[in-house]
Write a structure and sequence with these properties.
Structural class: alpha+beta
Strand content: 5-15%
Low-confidence stretches: none
Number of helices: 5
Strand order of the largest sheet: 1-3-2
Mean pLDDT: 86
Radius of gyration: 17 Å
Order of helices and strands: HHHHHEEE
Largest sheet: 3 strands, antiparallel
């Protein structure tokens, strides 16, 4: 009986949490069309902000003027194939260190808040940290 129970448990897919859907959705919206490295860099900044501020994903993306696509009542769910892509990104080595907390589109004028920061380009974004 124990073997049958184990087989059933192993064959039942684990549903991703709301937190996992939030991170996958954020990468999908913010870094669509970027390389894996560019997507991983966005994930690094998201995780760095979560750790530095002690907040969950939804609280980070809901911060004012941080993520242009965010709307208060947006449903953050992704398809199974996008979740699979996210899981691959999640297992990659980080591209950015924990000090990188900010980023912006490289094709836009550099924001005044980034003056005096160290920034590095990955695909279409500049990722910044305090000197």
């Amino acid at each position: 009986m124990t073997g049958l129970l184990l087989a059933i448990m192993l064959s039942t897919p684990v549903q991703p949490s709301a937190e996992t859907h939030c991170m996958a959705f954020t990468i999908m919206r913010e870094a669509e069309g970027e390389s894996k490295r560019g997507k991983r860099a966005v994930l690094d900044v998201l995780r760095n902000r979560m750790a530095a501020r002690g907040k969950k994903c939804r609280a980070i993306v809901a911060e004012k003027r941080q993520w242009s696509w965010y709307r208060r009542k947006i449903v953050m769910r992704v398809s199974r194939s996008r979740m699979h892509s996210y899981e691959k990104l999640r297992r990659m080595q980080p591209v950015l260190s924990k000090e990188y907390l900010w980023f912006f589109r490289a094709d836009m004028p550099r924001p005044s808040w980034s003056k005096g920061m160290v920034c590095k380009r990955v695909d279409r974004h500049l990722f910044c940290r305090v000197k």
